[in-house]
Write a structure and sequence with these properties.
β4 (73-76), α4 and β5 form a beta-alpha-beta unit. This protein is of the alpha/beta class. The protein is built from 15 helices and 8 strands. The protein starts with a strand and ends in a 14-residue tail after the last helix. It has 2 domains: 2-179, 3-Layer(aba) Sandwich (Rossmann fold), CATH 3.40.50.720; 182-324, N-(1-d-carboxylethyl)-l-norvaline Dehydrogenase, domain 2 (Orthogonal Bundle). The longest helix has 23 residues, at 181-203.
Length: 338
């Protein structure tokens, strides 16, 4: 099988390694010429995954058409805010039967749409939409080193989901399917907002109790918005909900947790992001989630406080106290005193 992977950050490189290790013909698109040459010479992506070597069969290119033409499957592993632009550029080179697997996590700014919706809008009516989403607690640093990992693939088309499941499944990368593409995408995107809050807790030197409360109530918010948008409740108890939330809020690999931690320590957002090589998707997602919560009339107090810390200069300590001092209420909407 011929596969193109678009995006040579840590996650795109990791997925290329996984697929190349399975023996597929993989072409990895590298946007920057400087990085491409380094990877060609060293057989590793030293900018994003130092010490992890690329299988010999992986081809490297900085031409999108080379990564797309003749490919049966395309993996999108680019920042969420450029997904639409990338699909617009590659659709002229795609075959009609090509399957697109989106591995980015986020929401479109402005339209507030899920990324699969953005992809389908770009493709239709010219190309039939065979779109799947790959999401879960999957840090590239571990997947690229063949550390046992589980993930979920979602699609509106069961045959497409099962095909992608078979392609990605390995003895160290277990893939489950889920027909709830709305829930899978929202879980993968919104957990980054809560991870920013978890990082703030760490930066303020709060304890385990604080973070446990934040994660639990954060999952409530994610589920609440998901249900309003047509997702299934059970999805948020799975890998793309609880699983991804747990790992992103606690792992030293998490970029969003890192940004929150530095905010908690008092550093300004611009200084934090300018020093980072990789994108913390939760920053843009927080704005979109905040706007979406208002559009849908859904209460999301943690998201609101994270938004005000990021974009309105609110002090992290004040945000934490606002959450603690909210009006008293019951824990679970479905379980309350008569």
């Amino acid at each position: 099988m011929n596969i193109g992977v678009i995006g040579a950050g840590s996650w795109g490189t990791s997925l290329a390694i996984l697929l190349g290790d399975k023996g597929f013909n993989v072409t990895l698109w590298v946007r920057r010429e400087e990085l491409l040459q380094k990877m060609v010479q060293a057989h590793e992506n030293s900018d994003y995954l130092p010490g992890v070597f690329l299988p010999e069969g992986i081809k490297l290119t900085n031409r999108l058409e080379n990564a797309v033409q003749g490919k049966e499957l395309i993996v999108l592993a680019v920042p969420s805010h450029v997904v639409g632009d990338i699909v617009a550029k590659i659709k002229a080179f795609m075959r009609r039967e090509t399957v697109i697997v989106n591995a980015a996590k986020g929401l479109a700014e402005g339209s507030l749409k899920r990324l699969s919706e953005v992809i389908m809008e770009e493709l239709l009516p010219d190309i039939p939409c065979k779109v799947a989403v790959l999401s879960g607690p999957n840090h590239a640093e571990e997947v690229s080193r063949f550390i046992p990992t589980a993930t979920v693939v979602a699609s509106n088309n069961g045959a497409v989901a099962e095909k992608v499941q078979d392609i990605f499944m390995t003895p160290y990368f277990r893939v489950y399917t889920n027909p709830d593409i709305t829930g899978v995408e929202l879980g993968g995107a919104l957990k980054n907002v809560i991870a920013l809050g978890a990082g703030v807790c760490d930066g303020l030197n709060y304890g385990d109790n604080t973070k446990a409360a934040l994660l639990t109530r954060g999952l409530v918010e994610i589920t609440r918005l998901g249900l309003a948008l047509g997702a299934r409740r059970g999805t948020f108890s799975g890998l793309t909900g609880l699983g991804d939330l747990f790992v992103t809020c606690n792992s030293p690999h998490s970029r969003n947790r890192y940004v929150g931690m530095m905010l908690g320590k008092g550093y300004p957002l611009g200084e934090i992001t300018s020093a980072m090589k990789m994108v913390a998707e939760g920053i843009k997602t927080t704005r979109a989630a905040y706007e979406l919560s208002h559009k849908c009339g859904v209460e999301m107090p943690i998201t609101k406080e994270v938004y005000e810390v990021l974009f309105q200069g609110k002090k992290p300590q004040e945000a934490a106290m606002n959450l603690m001092r909210r009006q008293k209420t019951y824990e679970i909407e479905e379980i309350a005193f008569e």
